[in-house]
């Protein structure tokens, strides 16, 4: 049974001042098929909020709450924090862990659902950071995705009920980050979202609901998951709906994609259409959610076989330069992701 001596919280990262915005976006979009105008448009979203994303502060709050929870109930493990795209960068954190003599860490990733972006890409980030640090880098075991855990569903349902209390009888629009169709095809993303939406709706008293998407990126001709929240609002208006509750179950905190794309953009569209709209909160540091993280950590630290739906070859990367053409993953193979010969993975 492995012995763990730390927890690593791994997240997306976000800029904290205006000068951070462009270098942060360059990090996110390195090697990506995203047009420059889209990048500049998203930069404006950040500038509009003073160049600061709330996501890092939300990670700090999550870690503080988890610290208190672990101090009270164990296991007593130090918590480290690293990001994919902005400081504290994962590689620096990995180096610090090595210096501190950490040998094996449990990794909590701040994404509830599986997809290349939220699963495999983080595993690649970890491997790259470990290689950069060298021999002393800790082994890292990631916890499973938690889309259907009671500690995630419960707080989402509670937040949805709170929003529905403000606009009783509303139609519910659950939202999640759109991803390219090709990325959706190679992961359980949509099925996991459908399951979470169903469970949250059941626990919130069975409102009428739909699952829609937000924050679409990429080139316009490339197929991404839809409908987009803005289209969905138009459709709701056309079919006679008077009020909507938008519940971003795709995310765990009210970060930039939530406050810009929903509280600013979707709210404005609803206003133009004369639709009443309330946005439900994300789970954030809800005590039940923090308790869930502790339980997943404790289960792994105790060496219990943790049902981990992620195989060695899960959530493979779409291929660069081919408009997200599929990869040849080999199901049930214990080997790392295979890439069609002659094509290169987007990350090397
Ligand atoms: C599935 C998924 C999640 C949910 C799971 C998870 O939480 O990880 C997520 C979260 C987030 N996405 C975020 C920000 C951005 N995502 C972008 C672009 C992209 N996201 C994608 C997917 C996802 N993204 C994809 C397929 C792209 C296209 C480029 C690529 O193939 O990678 C871009 C580029 C500009 C643009 O939007 O075009 C930005 C700035 C932030 C930080 C917000 C803040 O700063 O507060 C967070 C938490
Ligand atoms: Fe996965």
UniProtKB/TrEMBL annotation:
Transmembrane segments: none annotated. Coiled coil: none annotated. InterPro entries: Ferrochelatase, Ferrochelatase_C, Ferrochelatase_N. Its EC number is 4.98.1.1. Pfam families: Ferrochelatase. GO terms for cellular component: cytoplasm. Pathway: Porphyrin-containing compound metabolism; protoheme biosynthesis; protoheme from protoporphyrin-IX: step 1/1. It catalyses: Fe-coproporphyrin III + 2 H(+) = coproporphyrin III + Fe(2+); heme b + 2 H(+) = protoporphyrin IX + Fe(2+). Keywords: Cytoplasm, Heme biosynthesis, Iron, Lyase, Metal-binding, Porphyrin biosynthesis. Fe(2+) binds at residues 177, 257. Residues 325-340 have a biased composition (Polar residues). The keyword Metal-binding applies. One of its GO terms (molecular function) is ferrochelatase activity. It is found in: Cytoplasm. One of its GO terms (biological process) is heme biosynthetic process. Residues 325-348 are annotated as: Disordered. Catalyzes the ferrous insertion into protoporphyrin IX. Belongs to the ferrochelatase family. NCBIfam families: hemH, PRK00035.2-1. This is Ferrochelatase. It comes from Paludibaculum fermentans. The lineage of its organism: Bacteria, Pseudomonadati, Acidobacteriota, Terriglobia, Bryobacterales. The gene is hemH.
């Amino acid at each position: 049974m492995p012995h763990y001596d730390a927890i690593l919280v791994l997240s997306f990262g976000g800029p904290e001042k205006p000068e951070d915005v462009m270098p942060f976006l360059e990090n996110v979009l390195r090697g990506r098929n995203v047009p420059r105008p889209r990048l500049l448009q998203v930069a404006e979203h950040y500038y509009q909020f003073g160049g600061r994303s709330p996501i890092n502060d939300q990670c700090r709050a999550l870690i503080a709450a988890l610290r208190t929870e672990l101090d009270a109930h164990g296991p007593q493990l130090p918590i480290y924090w690293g990001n994919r795209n902005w400081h504290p960068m994962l590689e620096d954190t990995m180096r610090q862990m090595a210096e501190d003599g950490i040998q094996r860490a449990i990794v909590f990733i701040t994404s509830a659902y599986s997809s290349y972006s939220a699963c495999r890409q983080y595993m690649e980030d970890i491997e790259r950071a470990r290689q950069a640090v060298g021999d002393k880098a800790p082994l890292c075991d990631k916890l499973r995705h938690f889309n259907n855990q009671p500690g995630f569903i419960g707080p989402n349902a509670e937040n949805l009920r709170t929003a529905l209390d403000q606009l009783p009888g509303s139609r519910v629009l659950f939202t999640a980050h759109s991803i390219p169709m090709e990325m959706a095809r190679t992961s359980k993303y949509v099925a996991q979202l459908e399951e979470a939406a169903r469970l949250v709706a059941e626990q919130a008293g069975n409102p009428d609901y739909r699952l829609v998407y937000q924050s679409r990126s990429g080139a316009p001709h490339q197929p991404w998951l839809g409908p987009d929240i803005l289209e969905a609002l138009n459709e709701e208006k056309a079919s006679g709906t008077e009020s909507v509750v938008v519940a971003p179950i795709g995310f765990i905190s009210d970060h930039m994609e939530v406050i810009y794309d929903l509280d600013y953009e979707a709210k404005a569209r609803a206003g133009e259409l004369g639709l009443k709209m309330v946005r439900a909160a994300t789970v954030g540091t809800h005590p039940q959610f923090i308790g869930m993280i502790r339980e997943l950590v404790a289960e792994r630290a105790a060496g219990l076989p943790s049902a981990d739906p992620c195989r060695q070859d899960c959530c493979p990367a779409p291929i660069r330069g081919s408009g997200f053409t599929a990869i040849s993953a080999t199901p049930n193979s214990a080997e790392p992701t295979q890439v069609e010969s002659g094509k290169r993975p987007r990350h090397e």
